[in-house]
Specification:
355 residues, alpha/beta, nine-stranded mixed sheet, two-stranded antiparallel ribbon, 10 helices
């Protein structure tokens, strides 16, 4: 039996002692909003369940439904902490000496996409750590060198096509089976080679808690005013019938905070963005409680390492990288890295909420 989540399905209350950092069996009447309320004291934190890899199979591909009898892992309680260095005691060196005279594997990313990539975070962020360690585990003698260049547009426009860098990350992958459904800028991603998924990210839709007309599916978003900052991908909207200028009015200001300001002022109906960026922006702008996620419309998009199809070195190396990534998954290191940075993200959001 399936149970749909509902917006703010349970009133806010204090978190339940001990209802976290363990496995829970879903029973009739449960919704993710109610479980989030018990675990974290906040119905809006239901998205935290999706970004723990241990829930990947139990939650499936439809984020709006949960199955009675499924085993759900409850993330650590607010305030708990883990250390990355000691997690599982797994080492990441493949045991092969690196040749200092061999050309590096040149990798580019940006620095403003926490918790995934950021020069200000330990190890350069979650996926910087994953990419570096996956290459260390791969079957080659070259060293991966990650460089931060914050002009994200240049990565796919020039740096990868011109082979200035072998790889870039983290990028969302569109469905290239029907290029005609994509905008011109999104179609360029079909010229890339893609690694196995690094991480699966929840893309949420946010509205005011006072809103009376809450859509239940993508069709309900048609003819509405949506906001997603400039430079962010749009293929998920296009592939679900939400075409800017045709079926929706899309506002694209420079910053995430600008979108939520427009929502507060009534200039847009919804903000759509990944849940990590949204949670931090909502907390930092003091809109927690006023702005809420729509739990009936949630999508999942995977982040990848990418190279250009014309780069022969990248085409050869991508399989070795995937092998290294599989090793990290098998030995538990991938889970340790993601759990560590998930906890760091939640600590930051909780701190912002308490200010």
């Amino acid at each position: 039996m399936l149970f749909l989540m509902s917006l703010n399905a349970f009133p806010a209350a204090a978190q339940e002692d001990g209802f976290c950092d363990r496995t829970y069996k879903i029973v009739p009447g449960d919704t993710l909003s109610r479980l989030a309320n018990r675990a974290f004291g906040n119905t809006q934190d239901f998205m935290r369940f999706y970004n723990d890899g241990r829930n990947k199979k139990s939650l499936g591909t439809n984020p709006s439904r949960i199955n009675v009898g499924a085993a759900l892992y409850l993330p650590p309680c607010p305030g708990s902490s883990i250390t990355l260095e000691s997690a599982n005691g797994v080492t990441t060196d493949n045991g092969k000496a690196k040749d200092p005279f061999t050309k590096n594997i040149d990798v580019v990313t940006g620095t403003d996409f926490a918790p995934f990539t950021s020069e200000d975070m330990e190890f350069g962020g979650m996926l910087t750590a994953v990419v570096q360690e996956a290459f260390d585990q791969s079957n080659n003698e070259r060293t991966a060198k990650v460089v931060f260049i914050n002009d994200w547009g240049s990565h796919l426009e020039t740096l990868l096509p011109d082979h200035k860098y072998d790889f870039g990350f983290p990028w969302y992958r569109p469905d290239c089976s029907d290029p005609g459904a994509l905008s011109a800028s999104m179609r360029k991603r079909c010229d890339l080679i893609w690694s196995d998924p690094l991480f699966s990210v929840i893309i949420g839709f946010y509205t005011l808690s006072t809103a009376s007309d809450i859509p239940q599916d993508f069709a309900g978003l048609q003819e509405k005013r949506l906001c997603r900052p400039a430079g962010y991908f749009t293929f998920d909207l296009e592939q679900n019938g939400l075409v800017p200028g045709k079926t929706i009015e899309l506002s694209q200001p420079n910053g995430v905070d600008d979108c939520f300001e427009k929502l507060e002022k009534g200039e847009v109906d919804f903000v759509t963005i990944n849940r990590f960026t949204a949670e931090k922006a909502i907390a930092s702008t003091g809109l927690d409680g006023l702005v809420v996620p729509i739990d009936s419309i949630v999508t999942s998009q995977e982040l990848h390492l990418v190279g250009h199809k014309t780069n022969r070195a990248a085409v050869k190396l991508i399989e070795q990288f995937n092998d290294g990534l599989s090793t990290l998954e098998e030995n538990g290191r991938l889970s340790s890295i993601t759990r560590y940075f998930m906890a760091k993200h939640q600590e930051e959001v909780d701190d912002l909420r308490s200010q």
